[in-house]
Amino acid sequence: MTNLGRQYLPDAELRKLPFGRVGRNVLVHERANLIELENIMIGDNVRIDADVTILATGPVAIGNYVHIGAQCYLAGGAGIEMRDFSGLSQGVKIYSTSEDYSGRHLTNPTVPRAYLGVVREAVLLDRHVIIGAGSVILPGVTVAEGCAIGALSLVRRSTDPWGVYSGIPARRVAERKRDLLALEAALLENRPPPNRA
């Protein structure tokens, strides 16, 4: 069956919503589930696709030229920041809060808070980070500038810049090229991309 709806919210409608900030050229799918809009800051040239959930019980900052693919889940209770040119493929999960699974505490939201051992640490995706489909990012992780995370990876520790990481848990498997920095400069200076032959 085809979705014959309008798909992305019109700009005028977006600007009526109580976002902390919303920039220019922002596309938010009508089926995105954004909770506590006042805690969400969105830069310019951003696209948030269908069935994305952003639970912004803490600050969620989305930079410029950012894409969040369909069915992503961002639990922003302790804060999530996605810097410029970062992106999430489909089905990525980012948790800035998580239960303690060690057995030292009770778990689940039906239990009073005093019995829980919730971990609360902000997550940062630095510039030019791309996270592959189905990957999971845990609380306190900084994915450093220029990193690429392979599909279906579990990132539980912070990364070093300009690496390709993959696996469960994610490990550095290669270096990532920095050619994209010249493309960024050309885009921001409004000139044609350099010849990459």
Structural account:
The chain is mainly beta and 197 residues long. The protein has one domain (11-188): 3 Solenoid (UDP N-Acetylglucosamine Acyltransferase, domain 1). Helix content is 8%, strand content 30%. It has helices at 11-16, 180-188, and strands at 21-22, 26-28, 33-35, 40-42, 46-48, 53-55, 60-62, 66-68, 73-75, 80-82, 87-88, 93-95, 97-98, 119-120, 123-125, 130-131, 136-137, 142-143, 148-149, 154-155, 163-166, 171-175. The strands form four sheets. The chain has an eight-stranded mixed β-sheet, with no helix packed on it. Strands 1-4-7-10-15-18 form a six-stranded parallel β-sheet, with no helix packed on it. The longest helix is centred in the C-terminal third of the chain and has 9 residues, at 180-188. The mean pLDDT is 95.
Assign the CATH superfamily: Hexapeptide repeat proteins
Say what the CATH topology is: UDP N-Acetylglucosamine Acyltransferase, domain 1
Low-confidence stretches: none
Main sheet: strands, sense, barrel: 8 strands, mixed
Provide the gyration radius in Å: 18 Å
Structure keywords:
8% helix, 22 strands, UDP N-Acetylglucosamine Acyltransferase, domain 1, six-stranded parallel β-sheet, 2 helices, mainly beta, eight-stranded mixed β-sheet, 197 residues
